[in-house]
Amino acid sequence: MKCCANCFGDQGLQNEISFISSENGTCGYCYFENVALVAPEELLLKFEPLLDTYDFDATGSPLAYWLKKDWFLFLHPKMDDARSQMLLGDIFNDGEIVRKLLVPSDKYDPDRLGNWDDFRQELIHQNRFFPQSQVNLDELARLLPLLAINTADMPAAWYRARMQSEDTIFDADNMQAPPPHIASHGRANPAGIPYLYLGSEVVTSISEIRPHTGEIACVANFSIQDDLELIDLRHPRKTVSPFSGGGAENVGQMRFDLEFLERLGNELTRPVSRQATAFDYTPSQYLCEFIKKCGYDGVIFRSSVSDGINLALFYPEKATIGDIYQRRVDKVSVDVSAVT
Question: Which domain holds residue 78?
Fold first, then answer.
């Protein structure tokens, strides 16, 4: 029985399987049709470093559990626990090893990049410009290329919305990023340094400005330059492949580093109230300024109020405005949960 890249859902493994495959057909595990196939044992050298990042422990969980949790592998609906373990057993040619229980190895440094929670609290409430808590910026800069994404992998159209207080539709100048002297603090930008905030959908761009039912939003289409380098902070565990090379030591350390990178993505997605003061944004502004310093053009992050995604573009001139039109907000939906 042969497997395909869809079984794993990992871009790094997708490229490897496409390279070594000599036939197309129907996958014996996830049942995708007309896909590149390989014998599971051909992937052994790729999976051995992953196994080495865990230790056998009777209090732990099976390997399939950890690969789903830590690396977002086997997320295809057909790849349930039983089928994932079957495929892993075929890769290792050992049905017993995948039934044994494991825990993450303690030989790696969980705080190599620093403690983001301590750092953000100090930035907000203690030391804005010279914090005593430290983030390992050299290591963070080394990891950023793993999260880099090219414009070609992004939507072709982006949108910016502004609420209208009068009937007259905004012109192009008023739908661009604000000029420096009136640019207020934002999720990614400090006051006085304008960034262009765009959403991947019209609804996303309107939702991000927290509208009320019955209000009129002015929406502008934007296209962005083809050669931009962006940092994608939506789902680091989906973006970073454990099969990118470097051996067990690098993979084991990356497992802990990913937890830190997820904190950064959550920082940008964190809901902020309309009454937020400038210092609420300080941690995410610090993060974006560092990404900008490293030579990138902007950051992609999840929306907390819609299913779309957001782009904070550090250089507004690298986007071109198109059509401008109005949309009425017909309904605002609210979900609630218990406070824990």
Answer: 5-104
